[in-house]
Amino acid sequence: MPLSENVLAGLRADAAAQLPQIAELRHALHRVPEIGLDLPLTQQLVLDALADLGLEVSTGTALSSVTAVLHGGNPGPAVLLRGDMDALPVTEDSGEEFTSEHVGIMHACGHDLHVAGLVAAARLLAARRDEIAGSVVFMFQPGEEGDGGAEQMIAEGVLDAAGERVVAAYGVHVASALVPTGAVAGRAGTAMAAADTVRITVHGEGGHGSAPHRALDPVPVAAEIVLAIQSLVTRRFDAFDPVVVTVGAILAGTTNNVIPSSAELQITVRTFSRATWEAAPGLLTTLSENIAAAHGLTATVDYQRGYPVTVNDADELDRTARLTRELFGEQAWLTMPQPLAGAEDFSYVLEQVPGSFVFVSATPAGVDSRTAPYNHSAQARFSDDALAIGPALLAALALDRLGDAAVR
What we know:
Oligomer: single chain
CATH architecture of the largest domain: 3-Layer(aba) Sandwich
Distance between the termini: 9 Å
Number of helices: 10
Shape: elongated
CATH class of the largest domain: Alpha Beta
């Protein structure tokens, strides 16, 4: 059963009313950013913020995660809401009054808003505990920026923290640019790419630069592989199911007149479907090995899987779009025309249960979202106003999904 206008209005009003307190928490988090899986300062701020809500709180074993469970006044299934907590190795140059106090570390991707926003959603739902038929799991996750914290939290049981497997999962990500101010953006199906890393080493025989015929030079072979990969992308993959391959580093040699014995390529591969994700390693390996062999050299390919494709369930994305419009007006929802080529480890959760992952504008007032510094920039700035949007939407998603289950 859809949420009534009274419920929606209450969520909007309560989210706005607690904005100053939640913004203060966000600023505290922003001042003490931490990287990776071990975030003791961040974890303690979260534990303190949740202390008076009457939740079942536990912390991780292999990582400094926080899992909090809210049991409603009536029995029912469980849903999950997620916020990631880690920062980036970026020296802040945003000009914010609450700038990072940790040299070389910054919340440049807005995860401080995610944490504060999830606390805000927990407060909204705790105030409505008696109306909830079921449970809500709040997933405060370290290690999104490359460390796979979501996968580790799943291994430690976050999806079953309420006593049974959650039936749906929801997450939001703030954007300092691109998404127009006040808007929420998302799409059904693939929302973000899978990201893999590849290291290709071409093995030759070193020699003198004056006599390349007496060596097996790996450098031109590596260069040929670089160019051939670009043809592979356009000739072996469907143009409507694209693959993005970027050679970010070419490492070979020590000086101008010495032919090195090996050359190395460091590559990122972005795919947008399970089919291309599965096909890419074999095609890249065959290409590299055969080009090297054609020149009398060998190549080894170390293909490392990263985060999988982030896929939104169509029904849950429809629910998210509907609630966004009902909460904030028709203009607030934007359907993304294509996925983002970035990757996100909430994908591990969405592989297990249906859900949605959407983007909330956090471009500061008066700044053009088309030209503002984007996430991961040292100049990125995020508006506290997003903390009145994301939490209300997350709380509404939990109430709406559990309400559906209660009706059935």
